[in-house]
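User: Okay, second chain of the day. Same drill as before: sequence in, structure tokens out.
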Amino acid sequence: MSLAPRAVLVHRRTEYEELLARHGTHGQAAFFLTSRGRSIDEVLRRHERTQHALREVAAAVPLTWRSSRVERADLDRFLFAPEDVVVVVGQDGLVANTAKYLHGQPVVGIDTDPGRNPGVLVRHRCTDAAALLRAATTAGSRAEELTMVEAVADDTQRLLALNEIYLGSPGHQTARYRLGSDDDQGPGEAQASSGVLVGTGTGATGWLRSLWLERGSRAELPAPCERRLLWFVREAWPSPTSGTTKVAGELGRGQGLQLTVESDRIVVFGDGMEGDALELTWGQSVRLGIAGTSLHLVT
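Assistant: Same drill. Structure tokens below.
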């Protein structure tokens, strides 16, 4: 007997909740902002809109379903099940934060603050939740399969990301490594840089696009569902022992970018989730490419 679907509502603490956690009371938080020429009123209004959206979505869950909630800070400790329907209530970035922990479960994006969020991934209003939940469990319903990027280390550690994966020093020091492709016969080019970024078509609206613009790249940015990645080396430094001939490129199906660490430590994290990163030490290697998993976004 199969289990009933479970709606998992993913959210994050609002700015107002973070202020209360830091200052203790509404009055203290209001005084803190007022003393700096700001008002707590708009922060409170955004908080109330988010809480209203969460209540609306929770009420839309069918009575025969199970339901659960998880905050962004707890995603790395939450166990998603195959029968889950994941409802992200918040910003676009929260969908990306959630994607790395999923394995094909349908995702519904609910925008809590229309006009303030771009709405690239959270495309729907809370009033649409009931219809979207039904669609998520209906065969043949409309959905997009968004391409993801993965990093696989030589010790089998694996990291997924929807927007981009960054590899670099955990601080502001120079990262040293060797960079090459699957087809290279040698060990790759020795480089010293601020790190390497590998991004998807979804990430092409964010950090990847800023690097693409800064570099004046002629490469076409990938579409979110396109099985293609772009990569850039940030601020590569030429020296007698480090080169700059491999600073940008693209990866298609089956292609990989290989990086071998020549620093004490390099971190690998995806979509800004620095707290859930891989740590590699001198001599270790990691391969980056298109992930076998994609994000199933209900449209």
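The two ends are 29 Å apart (CA to CA).

User: Thanks, on to the next one.
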